[in-house]
C-alpha cells in the first residue's frame, strides 16, 4: 500500500465527463453533439447536451423525455462501460502509482515527487487528459489542488472536458465565492437550512464558528463544514487499499413511490443476492448491513444493523436487510422512494464465518449458496433464481458512489 506525500497542489482529481453517455457517443458517431439519455425507465446518465435541458441522473425516464423530447434514449451496455473504465485506470496507473479509486469513473492521483521525471502537476494533468482521449476516446476533467477536497471541487468547476489548478495562495479566494452546495455533505435539505439563516456561500460558512455551525446542522456536520470552509483536509491519497464494503443499489425513479411492499421486497432480494454472490466469489464475509435510501426531494437516509458474526450467507444478510427496510417504511411512505441500496461492511478479508453447532435452530444454507453459485457460473445467472423474482424485471444496478 502506498500513501501520498503532501507537496503543494500535487493532488489530481480525474473525473470522466458523463461517463456512460460519453461511451455511447464514442461508439456511435451519429450520437455525437446530440442529447443522449442512457436508460429508459430511470436515467443512468445524460450527455451534456441533454443536461442543458435539465435532465439529471436518477431522474425518471418520463420526466427526462418531457424536459428533452428530442433526446435519443439508448439502453445501457455495462460491459462496454466496464472495459472503458479499466482502460482509463490503466492510464492512471501509467501516470503515478498513487491512485485512489472513488468509483468506476473517477479517482484521486498524487503526483508529488514526479516533477523531475514528468513535469509540473499541470503538465501531468494535461498529458493524462490527452492520453485518455487518445487511448480510450473519452473526455475527462482534471482538478489540481493541495487537498483532496479542493481538487474535487476544482474538477467540478472545470467541467466539462477541462483542467483547473488551484494554487495554494489562491485557495480561499477560489473556494469562498462558491455556493454552500460545493461543500461535501451539503445536500438540498442542509442548504435550505443554512439558507434560512442567510448562509448562501462558502464564505458565509467560514465566517461562523464551529460551535455556531454545530447548533445549525449538528455537531459532526458542523465540524466538517468548518474544516472544509477553511480548506482543512488532511486526508492523503491512499493506493492499494482493500475494499471496506461490498454493495449494490438500484434507482427506482419517481415510480418508486408507488411500489407495493411486495415489489420493493423483490428489489431488496435481487440486490442482496448480487451482493452476497460477490462476497463469496471474493472470499469475503461481513457483519454490518447498511441500507441507503434516496427520496423524491433528493434527500437521503442511512440505516445499519450489525450482526453477531461475519457471514456471506444470502438468507442471513437478506433477513437483516428486510428488517432495515421494515423499520424505514414510515419514512419511505412519507417522502417517496427513488433509490434503494445496500452495502455489507465490517469485511472479514479471510472470508471466515463462525460455524453453527449441529443443534442450532437456524439451517445452514452455505452449501445451497455455493451450489447455486456454481450452477450460475456454468449455465448463466438466469439458470437459478428465487421464486419472488420469477417474471419480474430485475432492473439495472447502478454503481455504488460515494455519498
UniProtKB/TrEMBL annotation:
Alphabetical UniProt keywords: Cytoplasm, DNA damage, DNA repair, DNA replication, DNA-binding, DNA-directed DNA polymerase, Magnesium, Metal-binding, Mutator protein, Nucleotidyltransferase, Transferase
Catalysis: reaction(s): DNA(n) + a 2'-deoxyribonucleoside 5'-triphosphate = DNA(n+1) + diphosphate
Gene transcribed to yield this protein: dinP
MF (Gene Ontology): damaged DNA binding; DNA-directed DNA polymerase activity; magnesium ion binding
Binding residues for Mg(2+): 15, 105
Cofactor annotation: Mg(2+)
Site annotation Substrate discrimination: residues: 20
Quaternary context: Monomer.
Class of the enzyme per the UniProt entry, highest EC level: transferase
Subcellular location: Cytoplasm
Catalytic residue positions: 106
Name this protein carries in UniProt: DNA polymerase IV
Family listed: Belongs to the DNA polymerase type-Y family.
Amino acid at each position: 500500500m502506498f500513501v501520498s506525500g503532501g507537496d503543494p497542489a500535487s493532488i489530481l482529481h480525474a473525473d470522466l465527463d458523463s461517463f456512460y453517455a460519453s461511451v455511447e457517443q464514442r461508439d456511435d458517431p451519429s450520437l455525437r453533439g446530440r442529447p443522449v439519455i442512457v436508460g429508459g425507465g430511470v436515467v443512468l446518465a445524460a450527455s451534456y447536451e441533454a443536461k442543458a435541458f435539465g435532465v439529471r441522473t436518477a431522474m425518471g425516464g418520463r420526466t427526462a423525455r418531457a424536459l428533452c423530447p428530442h433526446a435519443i434514449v439508448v439502453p445501457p451496455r455495462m460491459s462496454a462501460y466496464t472495459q472503458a473504465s479499466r482502460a482509463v485506470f490503466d492510464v492512471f496507473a501509467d501516470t503515478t502509482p498513487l491512485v485512489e479509486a472513488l468509483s468506476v469513473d473517477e479517482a484521486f492521483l498524487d503526483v508529488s515527487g514526479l516533477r523531475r521525471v514528468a513535469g509540473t502537476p499541470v503538465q501531468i494533468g494535461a498529458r493524462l487528459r490527452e492520453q485518455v482521449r487518445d487511448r480510450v476516446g473519452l473526455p475527462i476533467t482534471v482538478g489540481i489542488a493541495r487537498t483532496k477536497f479542493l481538487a474535487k471541487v476544482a474538477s467540478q468547476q472545470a467541467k466539462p472536458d477541462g483542467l483547473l489548478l488551484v494554487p495554494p495562495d489562491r485557495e480561499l479566494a477560489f473556494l469562498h465565492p462558491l455556493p454552500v452546495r460545493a461543500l461535501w455533505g451539503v445536500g438540498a435539505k442542509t442548504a435550505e437550512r443554512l439558507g434560512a439563516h442567510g448562509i448562501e456561500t462558502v464564505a458565509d460558512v467560514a465566517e461562523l464558528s464551529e460551535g455556531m455551525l454545530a447548533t445549525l446542522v449538528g455537531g459532526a456536520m458542523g465540524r466538517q463544514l468548518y474544516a472544509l470552509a477553511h480548506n482543512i483536509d488532511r486526508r492523503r491519497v491512499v493506493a492499494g487499499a482493500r475494499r471496506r464494503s461490498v454493495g449494490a443499489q438500484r434507482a427506482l425513479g419517481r415510480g418508486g413511490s408507488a411500489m407495493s411492499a411486495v415489489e420493493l421486497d423483490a428489489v431488496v432480494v435481487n440486490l442482496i443476492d448480487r451482493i452476497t454472490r460477490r462476497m463469496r466469489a471474493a472470499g469475503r464475509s461481513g457483519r454490518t448491513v447498511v441500507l441507503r435510501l434516496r427520496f423524491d426531494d433528493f434527500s437521503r437516509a442511512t440505516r445499519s444493523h450489525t450482526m453477531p458474526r461475519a457471514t456471506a450467507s444470502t438468507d442471513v444478510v437478506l433477513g437483516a436487510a428486510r428488517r432495515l427496510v421494515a423499520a424505514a417504511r414510515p419514512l419511505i411512505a412519507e417522502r417517496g422512494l427513488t433509490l434503494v441500496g445496500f452495502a455489507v461492511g465490517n469485511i472479514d478479508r479471510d472470508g471466515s464465518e463462525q460455524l453453527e453447532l449441529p443443534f442450532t435452530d437456524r439451517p445452514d444454507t452455505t452449501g445451497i449458496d455455493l451450489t447455486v453459485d456454481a450452477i450460475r457460473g456454468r449455465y448463466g445467472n438466469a439458470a437459478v433464481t428465487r421464486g419472488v423474482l420469477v417474471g419480474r424485471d430485475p432492473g439495472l444496478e447502478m454503481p455504488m458512489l460515494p455519498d
